[in-house]
Amino acid sequence: MRITMNNIYGSIINNLDKLADDMHTLNETISSGRKYTTPSDDPVSLIGALEIRSIIDETEQYERNVTYGILWADNAEIALRQTDEIISRAREIAVQMANATESEATRASAAIEVGHLIEQIVALGNSQVAGEYIFSGQKTNIAPFTYDSVAGTVTYNGDENDINIRVGRNNSATINKNGKDAFMDDDETSNLFTYLIDLKEALEGNNVSGIQDSLGSLSDAADYINEKVADFGAKYNKLDMKKYIYAELGLSNTERLSDIEDTDLAEAILNLQTKEVAYQAALTAASKVMQLSLVDFLR
User: Fold this and answer.
1) Residue 285 — pLDDT band, cuts 50, 70, 90?
2) Kind of pairing between the strands at 164-168 and 153-156
3) CA 269 – CA 266 distance, rounded (Å)
């Protein structure tokens, strides 16, 4: 096969162009940090990356839902634990005031404190997370409890619906308990609030037998509240475990995505240096070839 100088010049230019393209591509991958800059660079990897990215987005949404649920469960558990402490204080008052040596005036003063305890529990029942009442059922914009100290009543204003959050593709979790269930034992006439109001009225009326009766009722109320504390503790632990799992999944999928998309900088820089050396060598060789002419031969 006859090789002309035009063939040689063409081959030189093609090789230099290819090396220049390679250096451009390597520069792009290094500066962007991505192995490919357009879908056509690696369609198979792109599809895999899109699938993983979708899974990451979905997992992050579940993790946000779980974090929201944990916040609700944690605040509800705290409110109920503090309620239990208030019940203990009410029982202490009842035990002390049931003593025959206590005066009517002392019992009247104790009644005022019990009134404050009722107000504190109502305030705990009206606890909020991010502006939403956590014991109102689905009526999260309405304060669930109102206390009428004159009439001696506590009214529940919420509904009895659950709030469920999505914690998996086919999995949801209930994060609340409506206030009626959490504080009132689903009984409008015999519950924590009526027990405390009965104690308050017995103290105001200097009614020793009434005060003694309140002791048993308050013990039952404390047991009931402690059951609800345990329920929310279980909810918290279950959601916290899911949060840990989703955090681990997120980390794993992010690493998988990085393997597909991200540039191995050390390898890319080494390849670029190799291409630069080859380009310089090709230029040197080309300059020598292109200087040759018939005049050079005649000399």
Assistant:
1) confident
2) unpaired
3) 5
Tell how strand 153-156 and strand 145-148 pair up.
antiparallel
Mean pLDDT value across residues 95-116: 96
- Is there a contact between 139 and 218 (Cβ–Cβ < 8 Å)? no
Q: For residue 270, how many other CB atoms are within 10 A of its CB?
A: 12
DSSP secondary structure code for residue 289 in this structure:
H
123 SS3 class = helix
The pTM is what? 0.76
What's the pLDDT tens digit per position in 49-104?
Answer: 889 999 999 999 999 999 999 999 999 999 999 999 999 999 999 999 999 899 99
Block residue for tokens 């619906």: 161
Cα distances from 106 to residues 48, 94, 100, 195, 239, in angstroms, run: 76, 12, 11, 20, 48
Q: What is each CA distance from 16 to 3, 19, 144, 273, in whole angstroms?
A: 19, 5, 78, 15
